[in-house]
Amino acid sequence: MKNKLSYLTEIKYIFLKNFSKIFKNKSKLIQSNFRSFYYTTFVGFFLIFIFAAMPKTITITTKIFSTPEIIINKSKSNFEKIMKGKKLELQKDGKDKKKKATFTDLFFDIFEFEGIDDDTVRLSASTLKQLFEDTKYNLNDVRKNKVVKPVLIALLPNEIKNIESSKKRKQLFIQIVLPLILEENERIKLDRKRLFVILNKNNNTESEKKWLKNKFKQYGVVNRDLTTLKIRIDEIPVSLAIAQAAKETGWGTSRFALEGNALFGQWTWNGDGIKPAGVDDQAKHKIMRFHVLQASVRAYQRNLNTHSSYKEFRKARAIQRDNEGELNSLELVNYLDKYAETGKEYTRILKIIIQQNSLQDFDDAKLLPSSEKIKKLI
Questions:
Q1: What is the value of pTM for the model shown?
Q2: Closest by alpha carbon to 195, among 181, 182, 214, 180?
Q3: 259, 258, 257: which is closest to 247 by C-alpha?
Q4: What is the pLDDT along the chain (378 residues), one digit of tens a residue?
Q5: CA 348 to chain centre
Q6: What's the number of CA atoms in the CB half-sphere (13 Å) around residue 372?
Q7: CB-neighbour burial class of residue 178 (10 A; exposed 0-12, middle 13-18, buried 19+)
Q8: CA distance 64 to 51
Q9: N or C end of the chain: smaller count of CB under 10 Å?
């Protein structure tokens, strides 16, 4: 609903549109019909109050609420606890008048987007800009403090291709993909730590043996080769991943990125994909399509960590780990000439992207701990 409805009308629309869902999906919402109605009604009036009290936040809130797929995904006890805390907070703010709670803070504490299948929310570029400002997430701070706010975005904004300033377009693109890359690197890092703990033990538990079995399968390692598994379970340098995403998508403007959430131009021959324009009619490959951007990042990392074409890349990375401990993207990029048909020219361009945009500044950036995470926006 991208029309000029007032925000109160939009709230009413969302409330009525989702009224039937609230009683059908009892596993995710409050169980009692009567209490469901009570809490849902309360939330509706609560949000109307917030909107009326804070008109400056309308730009972001109305665009988020323009989709009729908002779901309260909290247990009854947690929901009551959250609402109780927010009521006290608002009363305190109203009484003392010392601070104002932004709608973004309240929204992310009350609602949680969790992969709403076909109802995934696509935020506009202006909405994302406002969201990043509200959460104090900017790249200058990241370069200085090496800390990234985990605002995880599922879809690129369609308007990104209309941003005339290349500097602003690149900045927005990096802000979107950086937390996604760090999130996947963190997952790999935890696996790597667990692997080394297991390797340093004489006797492994049944759960550890089961975990190892799953990792052998996940990383395509045959004959239970622990050395190969150790080499494959490792991170991709952040600067390298950003540079490849930028190159493959034209900084987020390509059709494959906007229609298929494909950040790394991976090919597929037997799955759902997008056929490249202008290719030979006999060509059978397509560009792999993903439901959300995060899935594209995960597939990319799995590709570099398992495919035979990148065996030398993994060897070079292992040598860097053994000798220096840190990964150098400008050296590792030399081993990705098989990633694209242009070979060495492709790696040369990646180096230019990394250097011109100072992407190595992000290699040692850290994602905030999960206890401090902002609710995921999906």
A1: 0.69
A2: 214
A3: 257
A4: 333 333 343 343 344 444 434 434 444 444 444 455 555 555 565 555 554 544 333 233 323 332 222 223 334 344 444 444 544 343 433 444 444 444 444 334 333 333 334 447 889 999 999 999 999 999 999 999 999 998 899 999 999 999 999 999 999 999 999 999 999 999 999 999 999 999 998 888 999 999 999 999 999 999 899 999 999 999 999 999 999 999 999 999 999 999 999 999 887 867 677 777 766 666 677 888 999 999 999 999 999 999 999 999 999 999 999 998 899 999 999 999 999 999 999 999 999 999 999 999 999 999 987 544 444 443
A5: 28
A6: 9
A7: buried
A8: 13
A9: N
| Token code pair at residue 69 | 């797929």
Instruction: Output the six-digit token pair for 106.
Output: 């309240």
What region does 103 belong to: left with phi over 0, alpha with psi -120 to 50, or beta? alpha
Quick one: tokens of 200? 């340093």
